[in-house]
Design a protein that fits this description.
By secondary structure, this protein is of the alpha+beta class. The chain folds into two domains: about 90 residues, K homology (KH) domain (GMP Synthetase, Chain A, domain 3, 2-Layer Sandwich), CATH 3.30.300.20; about 30 residues. The protein contains four helices and three strands. The chain has a three-stranded mixed beta sheet with strand order 1-2-3. Strand 1 and strand 2 form a beta hairpin. The chain is elongated and about 70 Å long. Pfam families: RBFA (PF02033).
Length: about 120
């Protein structure tokens, strides 16, 4: 039961925090940020918000720093928007899964090209 509730809250937080970042946060350091997932502790006291940032590593670092500084504001807004007795503590984390997936895709393309090259050479002989 508690897991179901935390999953439901995680999805709600993802939507609300995405909207807050898009519409309310005016920090110029925040670039094109996407909330990829939210993990809420079973006691609903903490929420890890995973974000990805479009741009280079410096833009990602700047955006994450700005989000961390705005965590208190985000928490207070969540408390107003979502009916909870206590709003969870918000912690922003950089999500590297998209970069990791792109790296794996690049490696797979390289393997495929090598295989095609090897097949082409074996047919020539």
């Amino acid at each position: 039961m508690a897991k179901h509730r935390s999953n439901r809250l995680a999805e709600t937080l993802k939507q609300e925090i995405s909207q807050l970042i898009r519409e309310e946060l005016k920090d110029p350091r925040i670039g094109f940020v996407t909330v990829t997932s939210v993990e809420v502790a079973d006691d609903l006291g903490n929420a890890k918000v995973y974000v990805s940032v479009l741009g280079d590593s410096q833009q990602a670092k700047d955006s994450l720093d700005a989000l961390k500084r705005a965590a208190g504001f985000v928490r207070s807004e969540i408390g107003k928007r979502v009916r909870l007795r206590h709003a969870p503590e918000i912690v922003f984390k950089y999500d590297t899964s998209i970069e990791h997936g792109a790296h794996i895709a690049q490696l797979l393309r390289g393997v495929k090209q090598e295989e095609e090259k090897d097949e082409g050479e074996s047919h020539d002989q």
